[in-house]
Write a structure and sequence with these properties.
The structure is a single chain. The protein is an alpha/beta fold. Helix content is 50%, strand content 22%. It has six helices and seven strands. The protein has helices spanning 12-24, 35-44, 61-72, 87-95, 108-123, 125-132, and strands at residues 3-8, 27-32, 49-53, 55-56, 59-60, 78-82, 100-103. A five-stranded parallel beta sheet has the order 2-1-3-6-7, sandwiched between helices. α1 (12-24) crosses α5 (108-123) and α2 packs parallel to α3. The two termini are 26 Å apart.
Amino acid sequence: MSCRVLVAEPDRDVRASFAEAIADAGGIVYPAGSLREGLEVLDRSVVEASVIDEVLPDGSGFDLLDALRSRLQRDIPCVLTTARPSKEVRLRALSMGVVTVWPLPYPREQVVISFQRIVIRYVRPFVVLAATWPAVG
């Protein structure tokens, strides 16, 4: 159950941790450490989901989310990560269609489980359904 995922996180260790957890859950990770790098990923790759930090060194995660949605011209599941999970941040994220907000630090095991659920629900629902459908015969 592979899924191509943009992971935009300025902290190299956190980005690597997310990338490893998502890869363990079946994801193919396209890492970015800034808004510019995230835009470069969008220019050269097709992504099906994203994990974006609220604060990037050269802009905000919300800026990248806007760019992602306008460039793809479709919605894909997005997770927003934040070190300051205030009510305002959560409401803004949810109003922009973010699936969930992960407060940092977010445990690795929860990244794996959450990512698997996002893929099953938003990216590959019909593949999972077909795989679990009873055989006719």
